[in-house]
Amino acid sequence: MYALQPPDESVRRAVLRAQAHARGLVLRDDVIDYVLARFPRDLGSLAALLDQLDDHALRTRRAITIPLIKDMLENA
């Protein structure tokens, strides 16, 4: 029997960066730190959050930054 372990911090960061890069987005370290400190850390939730951030960034024509994340949460 094998037990699956949740991904560690470095894997979560790499997955977020890779998914963002696939969309043509750049996530700075401070943004990733903010997301990992304040949102659910499972990969499904992080992917859904990235979808929301991408949509909000496109609507507002802004880069994904901490102020953009806060704005998205206030206007949700």
Describe the structure.
- With 76 residues, this protein is mainly alpha-helical.
- The protein has one domain (9-74).
- The protein has helices at residues 9-22, 29-38, 43-60, 66-74.
- Helix 1 packs parallel to helix 3.
- It is elongated.
How many alpha or pi helices?
Answer: 4
Count of individual domains? 1
Number of strands: 0
Structural class: mainly alpha
Explain briefly what this protein structure is.
By secondary structure, the chain is mainly α.
Question: Which structural traits does this protein have?
Answer:
76 residues; mainly alpha
Please give the structural blueprint.
Elements: H1 9-22, H2 29-38, H3 43-60, H4 66-74
Helix pairs in contact: 1-3
